[in-house]
Model the fold of this input.
Amino acid sequence: MDNEIYIDFAGGKKVTARFRDMEIRTDQSVKAGGDGSAPEPFVLFLASIGTCAGVYVQSFCEARNIDTSGIRIVQRLEADAKGKLEKIELDIMVPRDFPEKYRKPLARVADMCAVKKAILNPPEFAVQTIAKAE
Done:
């Protein structure tokens, strides 16, 4: 895994992450002073949980030649009165004809998501300011 992601400022409240040859753009909502032109960083964080689980679900189904076109993951969030995130639920919606024998294993494999594991065992953070050499 590459270990550097470059974060640049694109004006206003827009912030862009560059990783390999890809860009991930973020912005703040209009209410928060942005243009609302891209997801807010926290929304991307939340989406990374569901999409990570989705990768595991997709791989599970592909290994068993199960069509994923009728499968959807619905992610719900529960927060307290102050807005603190308390619970994340992932419901894997499958067609009626989805094999019964794979329903529980599908949930188990989605639960193996690497993003979830990183949240449950958080890394140490080190933030510093470094003056660039001119």
Remarks:
- The mean pLDDT is 95.
- DSSP finds three helices and five strands in the chain.
